[in-house]
Amino acid sequence: MQSVHEVFKLIFGVLASILILGVILTFVGNYGNAQERSLEAAALRNVIKSAGDVYVSGNGIPFRGVPNVTFLPGDPPTFRTPDAAVPVRFPLFFRGGEDLFLARSRLDMGWWSFSYVTATPRLRVLFSPVVGDWQQVRDIVSAFPDTEFFDPKVTFGVCDGTQLREQLCTGQACEQRGFRDLPLEGLFPAVAPCTALLPADAILITLSSSCPQPRGVCLTPPDAGGIGTLFSADRALGYYYKDPVDVAALAIGGISDVTELTLFDVKNEQFRTELRLAAEVLRTRILLITPSFPAISPCRPDLAAFLGSLQGLEAILGDEAYYEQYPSLQALLSALGDLRAAHESLAAKGCDY
Amino acid sequence: MDGNCLSARRRAQSSMVMLVLAIIIVLGMVAFLFGLARTVSSAEYLNLYAHGLVASVLKTDTGYTEAPCKTVADSLACAYLTPSYICGGQETCADLADRMVNASIGRFAERKESLRYLLTVEPEGFSAIGGEGVTRVELGELSLRKLRESRISAAERLTGFFGGQPYVLTATLVLVVR
Amino acid sequence: MEYIMMIFLIMVVVVGLIVLLTGYQITRAAADRSDRTQDRALFLLKQVTTHPLFVSEEGVLDDAKLTALATLPDGCARLEDLFGPDWFLEVETLDGPGAACAQTNYPACGRWELCKQDARAVAYDLPVNVYRNAGTILARDVLARRDLAILTVGVYGR
Do B59 and B29 fall within a single domain? Predict the structure, then answer.
């Protein structure tokens, strides 16, 4: 028979053990969660660092093991995890996936180029050019990343009625260069509206004179001023588009459930911010360097023309909603055309780089 | 009875000792783990610095406007191909290259203590003799060639035409930063 | 009595372990924050040497662009809109006039500062070139010149 004292010791020991175990288990649970979140945050920083390196170097890289993050278009765009919100300070077109290909692309305007990074998983971009503007299709293809020699791939094909025509490059799916080099006008003299069942990794881009109920992204051909309208399945209202990057931004990014903004909105805001500052800096630069050119220099008239076009551009981009207004876009495209011509003249005469 | 008390006391004492040892081990782990504070790798920055240094020194204008002597890169190629060429009627391109490289990198060495360098210009691929029997141009501390200390290197290509033929040379900068 | 002492010591060890691991997490969090600041400073350094707002070509900063940015009324705020807040850059040519550049003394100047504050920062230096638009003025032309300079980019905060 155990004495009372020994029973006390037993019970005390058991209670103490339960207490100690309880403390340890609680801490281990919390510590485990904290470690997991810390690893996720580290993985997220790696994605952003890698994307940043691609932005400055221009060398595309694959990225594996992307954490589960939410990309929120905004000012600035932000990556969100349960514990962290990391802003992205360069143009990034992000589409979620575990394995991504990071690449830099450029919209070259001659006097300026707007660079952006695309982060894309395996994508099958399918065109349905009911209005057969194949040159525009090629331009849009150029705005997507070139994944040659890399994975995951971004491939291009055509949706013709109920058929998906993708194995167009010697029996294989076409990447950017291969698709652009195809004799598409001859291969597809007429294309029926796409009614095929689309796989989960496909993006459908339709070119049509009207887009009543778009699947994916639908655009009308640009008018004489270079402006068309762009529709998304997720939003009732359309957008004006002025360059192929607008189409790529909407196609890759879609519409955020949280912010109701799209990559299209973000791209145009970043475009405006960058170009407006660029116009002002270059205008001041021209004012600074012109006096050093001799009065008889043939460069002076071209410098004056370039300066005038820059001033016009600054005024247009002063309006935040410029990309939602047709007259502003018309004026913008006209100013960009003038700037391209003025810059080409300056460079041809050796007046500027 | 005394024996039992004594052995019980000894067991208790040894338990105490074990626990004290355990606490000491834990404290030791504390010191060890805190000492594991991560140091940031500066390799990326040092590589960027080395590439920035060699690229910017090579692109720098020398003050002469004639083609074989216009930039430091031009003068280095001239120093390999025609070292006795006179720039602006004043100095040979070999002397010019030596002066410009030493002055340029020397200015950065003033800012970064203990920056030692060796700049080598030689042809890409198979070695070939340059003009006037030159096999290689070396500027800076020649002892760095055989140094076993950790060093950073960065290379740039020098291209152009000499005697109507294209040339391709490699300028390699080796840096030792303590 | 020994059992109570033993339990007490075990609790001390357990609490000590908890404190140790928590302290380690805090140290790691601080190191992560420092890493992020350094990563950002390095990224900004690379951006400045490649972005057309600053350069004529990669690694060659344009002196007129730098002067324009340094003298814009809200230049720092506009740069922060693009590249984020709390950072600065300095460029100094190694030879030639060392005056800070303004529109009045351009091009006889050799120093530019953007968004400088009196605060602690993590900064990196990098050798660069500065493209002098009015390097050599001839009778009918202007020849540009590339000078050697040092670029410093930093991020404020610990």
Answer: no
Nearest one of A164, A76, C27 to B31, comparing CA atoms: C27
- Is some CB atom of chain B closer than 8 A to the CB atom of C24? yes
Phi, psi of B91 (to 5 degrees): -150, 160
Domain ranges across chain A: 4-86, 122-254, 267-348
pLDDT in tens, A206-265: 999 999 878 889 999 999 999 999 998 877 778 999 999 999 999 998 766 666 778 899
Q: Are B104 and B161 in a shared domain?
A: yes
A6: alpha, beta or left? (left if phi > 0; alpha if psi -120 to 50):
alpha
Domain boundaries, chain C: 2-156
- Give A-chain residues touching C11 at CB under 8 angstroms: 20
Same domain, B104 and B151: yes
Q: Is the ipTM of this complex over 0.85?
A: yes
Residues of C in contact with A34 (CB under 8 A): 25
Output the CA angle B131-B132-B137, nearest 5 degrees.
70
| Judgement on whether residues B88 and B115 belong to the same structural domain of the protein | yes
pLDDT, residue A139, reads 96
- For residue range A25-69, what is the model confidence (pLDDT) as tens digits? 887 787 777 777 777 778 888 889 999 999 999 999 999 988 778
Provide the residue range defining the domain that includes B26.
1-38
Tell me the H-state helices in A232-298.
244-253, 263-289
Question: Using the 8-state DSSP alphabet, how is residue B42 labeled?
Answer: -
| Residue of chain B minimizing CA distance to C50 | B52
> Are A278 and A95 spatial neighbours (Cβ–Cβ below 8 Å)?
no
Nearest neighbour of C6 by CB, restricted to B19, B30, B34: B19
Residue C137 has its nearest CB partner, among A16, A283, A292, at A292
Q: Where are the beta strands (DSSP E) in A144-294?
A: 154-160, 163-165, 202-207, 217-219, 228-232, 235-241
